[in-house]
Amino acid sequence: MTTVNRPGIPDTAPRLRRIAGTALLSLCLSTPFVQGASSGGQGNDPSGLTKLVIDADGDALEGLPEANLGTFEGGNTGHTEDASENNELQPEDQRADEDARFNVPTNGPPSPLYGAGAFSQKILRFEEFGLESLDFKAKKPDDWKKLPSPADAQSAPDGGMLEDFLSQPIWPTPTKYANTGDDNPWQKLIEGYLGRDLDDPPAEGRPPGLGWSHQRWEEFKPSVYFQTAQAGARTNGGFRDGKQLHGYQYGEFGPGGLYHNGGSTAGIEIRFHPDMPIQEHESLWTFDGTLPPKLLNARYGESILMRHYNALPVDVAANRGFGVHTISTHEHNGHNPAESDGYTNSFFFPGQYYDYRWPMVLAGHDSINTDADDPRAAGPDGTPIPGDWRETMSTHWFHDHMLDFTAQNVYKGNAAMMNYYSAIDPGREGEDCHYEDPDNVNLCLPSGTALDWGNRDYDVNLLLADKAWDSEGQLWFNPFNIKGFIGDVMTVNWLYKPTMDVRERRYRFRLLNGSVSRYFKVGLMDESGNPVPFYMVANDGNIMEHAVYFDNGELPTQGIAERYDIVVDFSGFEGQSLYMVNLLQHKNGQATDVAIPMADLATYNPKHGDCDGDGVYGDCWVDGDPVVGAFLRFDVVAYDGEDLSMDPADYVAGGEKMIPLRRPTEAEIANALHRTFEFERQPTDDKPWVIETDGGKGFGMDPRRISAAPSKNSGGLEIWRLLNSGTWSHPVHIHF
Predict the structure, then answer these.
(1) Residue 8 has pLDDT above 50, yes or no
(2) Residues whose CB falls within 8 Å of the CB of residue 88, separated by 6 or more in sequence, listed in order
(3) Which domain holds residue 50?
(4) What is the mean pLDDT of residues 114-122?
(5) N or C: which end of the chain has fewer CB within 10 A?
């Protein structure tokens, strides 16, 4: 067995006293790298360093408590089922439906639409978090207010007070080590709910000590920050209006622009359509608790700190029957240190915050281009940085990664997008694009010209997700379905089938599949159902070597969490409408079914059926999947400017290159270390998957188990083979 130093578990008795006494510092936080160590830590420090054991036979984890200990304290049972006790559709009310009917959403009736018509509302463009300069010498403001407390354990903080709180300068000042000197401001509320006293509940969710401190803090000390709270649905008060890069003053976001919308997000309620009910605070949990969905504009070379507050209900059952109030935030695909990577077991509790530090460095920082003399490795302003420019990223997102509840929490609203800006992708068009001037590395992807970087006039984030709602029109998820939940209503940026005005020019669309089980096959067609060609330029955050032309107007299948960046040219379509469509049919959430030809969409007609035989139609879907078909309409208007964006046709195979691939040599492949990870189904419902590593024993997921420990200093390449031997379709995403 191999051992390495990692944060370990000290003597459990004192830790359990502290954790059980607070219900606010998770045992899970201290154990993500632990391999069965039960002693040897440094006193009562839950992040004390100890030996890590690669668990070959499963014995190392014997006798350890549940990894999510404390999450459900205060509920009726203290276990997982407390999070689903208020769901509208309990197991005894669900039908056994194993035939070929379209059981969408799985085991639930069709979602009521309240008479809402398709393409009868404007899309919401993403709202930027906005970044502030971080002053480590700042003193506590005299009038600084704490995170506002809700009225009781089932409530949410007042929206206006929450916005006032988040508008303040950050305090306490972020530090390398977790803040355990300040107490959780919701201590009294939690004590009243639990019926006992807490023992110095810490303000921050990171455990104390070196193991969970920010790695290389002085080297990558954050220079900017933003703060947000995961909170229940509420009306937007517009407090981020002044934090937008465009300031509602420039380009298409300025007065007279397509996306000005009065110059504010104030008054936007959370509802899927104006004809549908307002969502309650227990139904949706978004960043800030508001819509539009949120976007972080990030620059390479500018280290960011996100202070993420947990303002969710203290009562684990105050959730309309799905989602859990402990959260862990993962910046998907980010090159970030482990303590800030949103590990599935590094969660924190209501009232607490967690400081995530994202250095915004290129991969290869320590070994490639260390003198930072390659102009292609730079921030959007040209400031050079070390690292491999071929690893430059573009479209990311961050989301919850809570143990056993990732799907539910993401579905419930814990998802935001993140645009990476760099020298080659600064979000600025111009006449000096890369293919015209070899000395200029800017690819000039469609964006705009008003700002030096980060223009979004013609660069659009689209969050695609299937949803469902209950008989009261509130967001609904079936936690009792363990074969993959899918919804029966398509949303874009949380809205039911919206429209978007676009100029007669090129646009970049950043498409995120934000579903939890559903795959998409996205296409683009005109009013007559004819395909409209376009180009793909990036996939999963990676700008590609060559643009790929889809003359049939259809993208490949897009998996869960996958991002596709495409360029669409609306030239020649003035006065017309184009439709973005989904072609991929599902009959359940376990696997995809067939793709429906674009030409057949006009006659594809899913409808309500009578699946229980009582003579009343409306308890299921038949004859098709209601999420197949058009879900976003583009209305093309005139453009009197000059399109200064790159022509993707110049970058198809055989032409110019965007980011050349770094292909391993034959010698590197021959000398590589090979590993195989095989995903297999097991005959159990609660833990249906195991993973075999290199043909060894298969284990269920436990965040404290280490099956392989690659070393970046081994001097060689590793090739990982991932095998899906089960019956479920599911992508695999490797953290860190």
Answers:
(1) no
(2) 320, 321, 470, 471, 476
(3) 3-84
(4) 98
(5) C
pLDDT higher at 52 or 202: 202
For the four alpha carbons of 57, 59, 61 and 62, in that order, the dihedral sign comes to: positive
Residue 562 falls inside a structural domain? no
Q: What is the DSSP letter of 105?
A: S
Residue 96 belongs to a domain = no
The three-state DSSP-derived secondary structure of 661-696 is CCCCCHHHHHCCEEEEEEEEECCCCCCCEEEEECCC
Mean pLDDT of the chain: 89
Residue 634 CB contacts under 8 Å (≥ 6 apart), including other chains: 499, 500, 501, 502, 570, 577, 578, 579, 580
Half-sphere exposure (Cβ direction) of 556: Cα atoms closer than 13 Å: 11
User: Other CB atoms closer than 10 Å to residue 643's CB: what's the count?
Assistant: 17
Q: pTM for this one?
A: 0.93
E strand map for 570-650:
577-582, 584-586, 592-595, 607-609, 620-622, 629-637
Residue 163 tokens read as 């916005």
Among residues 58, 84, 110, the one where a domain terminates is 84
172 in a domain, yes or no?
no
| Cα radius of gyration (the chain) | 25
Q: How far apart are the C-alpha atoms of 10 and 42, rounded to whole Å?
A: 7
Question: What is the pLDDT, as a whole number, of residue 299?
Answer: 98
Query: What is the pLDDT confidence band of residue 67, given thresholds at 50, 70 and 90?
Result: confident
Rounded to an integer, the average pLDDT of 681-700 is: 81
Q: Give the separation between CA 378 and CA 258, rounded to whole angstroms.
A: 32
How far, in Å, CA of 102 to CA of 589, rounded? 11
**What's the mean pLDDT in 216-220?**
97
- Could you tell me what percent of the chain has a pLDDT over 70? 90
Beta strands (DSSP E) in 16-135 are: 49-53, 127-128, 132-133
Of 25, 56, 84, the one marking the end of a domain is 84
User: Tokens for 79?
Assistant: 């276990």
Residue 278 inside a domain? The answer is no
How many domains, the chain?
Answer: 2
